[in-house]
């Protein structure tokens, strides 16, 4: 079959020879033969017609749904953990082969017997397991105790969902997270929209802490926050899926390949900043993090730790919070960056306290925050920690 070339001169009629021929159409570009136009049109339609369906590769259905390992770390929060499991019962019915492992950080109360008994009585044993641990090693330790053996064994999970015990899963929350990572193979982690029981969104997607972010957080001044808006650690919640530096570990789905690339959570963080560090290491390895508000999870803020509950008087920050913050800055900003971050936060917060007293405004910060910050970041024994 002769191949038609639209660019070959030998296929182009001489305009002069066509000027007075019957069947010639005239346009702004000159005369055009009707037969040539028809031939070219048919050829272009042939080229635009898709191959018959018999030669196209059919879409392959998923052989089996991905496996998800859900990890809940309990420490003296049996009631919350049981409520969390109850919200997961219907959610996991759509994910055969997926499991929940509740690890207990040596609570020393009746958590072990109560949670194990509820799992048995409710008939959840085919998808839920209670695993007591020998010590309270913190949030990362409790999660790793379930993640490590799951990844080492055959037929391990495709995704790992870190879930706080003080959460209640809304219907479809897990499905939205898994579907997102399936659609976006280059994304390594995705977090849920955390919200109050009445549906009010909580700030759940964050920027990595920086020196300028620490300055803004210490000052707590509207003008400074506007000028430093690019470095505000906790921006307002988004209504649409968006990339973010890190998301709260209260509901965080992680692709298996991320653990293979960067390892497990760092157990040197007892509590707080471990998910920040993990997302930072993942980002450095080329696995970005996203926020997916279609996944909705009720978060009863601070009830598992007792530190950040907004409905209780502000408690004094525990020493491990300061240790975790310092460990993060040393790991990702170096000693000089850490010292600078400490100095600007201290100066900023001191100015805030002066303004707060002069203006006689209520102080919503934790008890003795400035003194504890100075003690734990500049005080004696710092180099021994």
Describe this structure in words.
The chain has twelve helices and 13 strands. With 385 residues, it is an alpha/beta fold. The chain folds into two domains: 68-202 and 237-299, Spore Coat Polysaccharide Biosynthesis Protein SpsA, Chain A; 214-230 and 313-385, no CATH class. The strands form three sheets. Strands 3, 4, 5, 6, 7, 8, 10, 12 and 13 form a nine-stranded mixed beta sheet that branches. A two-stranded antiparallel ribbon has the order 1-2. β3, α3 (78-91) and β4 form a beta-alpha-beta unit. It is globular, with a radius of gyration of 30 Å. 33% of the residues are buried. Mean pLDDT is 85; it is low at 1-34 and 36-62.
List the helices and strands and how they pair.
Layout: H1 15-18, E1 24-27, E2 30-33, H2 34-48, E3 68-74, H3 78-91, E4 99-104, H4 111-121, E5 128-132, H5 139-152, E6 159-163, E7 167-169, H6 173-183, E8 189-195, E9 205-206, H7 211-219, H8 222-227, E10 242-244, E11 246-247, E12 251-255, H9 256-262, H10 274-284, E13 289-299, H11 319-358, H12 369-378
Parallel strand pairs: 3-4, 3-6, 4-5, 8-13
Antiparallel strand pairs: 1-2, 6-12, 7-13, 8-12, 9-11, 10-13
């Amino acid at each position: 079959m002769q191949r038609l070339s639209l660019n070959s001169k030998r296929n182009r009629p001489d305009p002069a020879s066509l000027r007075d021929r019957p069947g010639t159409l005239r346009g702004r570009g000159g005369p055009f033969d009707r037969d040539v136009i028809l031939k070219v049109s048919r050829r272009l339609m042939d080229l635009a017609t898709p191959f018959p369906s018999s030669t196209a590769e059919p879409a392959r259905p998923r052989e089996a749904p991905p496996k998800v390992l859900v990890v809940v770390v309990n420490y003296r929060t049996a009631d919350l953990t049981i409520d969390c499991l109850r919200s997961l019962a219907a959610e996991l019915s759509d994910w055969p082969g997926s499991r929940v492992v509740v690890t207990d950080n040596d609570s020393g109360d009746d958590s072990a017997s109560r949670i194990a008994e509820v799992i048995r009585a409710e008939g959840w044993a085919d998808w839920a397991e209670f695993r007591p641990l020998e010590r309270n090693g913190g949030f990362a330790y409790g999660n790793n105790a379930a993640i490590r053996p799951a990844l080492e064994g055959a037929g391990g999970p495709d995704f790992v969902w870190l879930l706080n015990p003080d959460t209640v899963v809304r219907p479809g929350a897990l499905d939205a997270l898994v579907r997102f990572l399936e659609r976006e193979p280059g994304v390594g982690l995705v977090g849920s929209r955390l919200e109050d029981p009445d549906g009010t969104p909580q700030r759940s997607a964050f920027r990595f802490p920086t020196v300028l972010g620490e300055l803004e957080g210490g000052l707590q001044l509207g003008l400074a926050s506007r000028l430093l808006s690019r470095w505000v650690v906790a921006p307002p919640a988004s209504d649409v899926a968006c990339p973010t530096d890190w998301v709260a570990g209260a509901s965080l789905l992680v692709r298996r390949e991320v653990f293979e690339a960067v390892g497990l959570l760092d157990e040197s963080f007892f509590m707080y900043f471990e998910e920040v560090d993990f997302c930072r290491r993942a980002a450095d390895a080329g696995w970005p993090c996203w926020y997916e508000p279609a996944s909705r999870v009720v978060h009863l803020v601070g009830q598992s730790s007792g530190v950040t509950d907004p409905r209780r008087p502000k408690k004094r920050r525990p020493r491990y919070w300061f240790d975790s913050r310092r460990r993060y800055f040393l790991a990702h900003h170096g000693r000089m960056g850490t010292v600078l971050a400490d100095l600007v936060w201290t100066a900023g917060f001191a100015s805030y306290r002066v303004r707060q007293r002069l203006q006689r405004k209520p102080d919503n910060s934790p008890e003795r925050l400035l003194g504890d910050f100075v003690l734990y970041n500049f005080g004696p024994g710092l180099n021994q920690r």
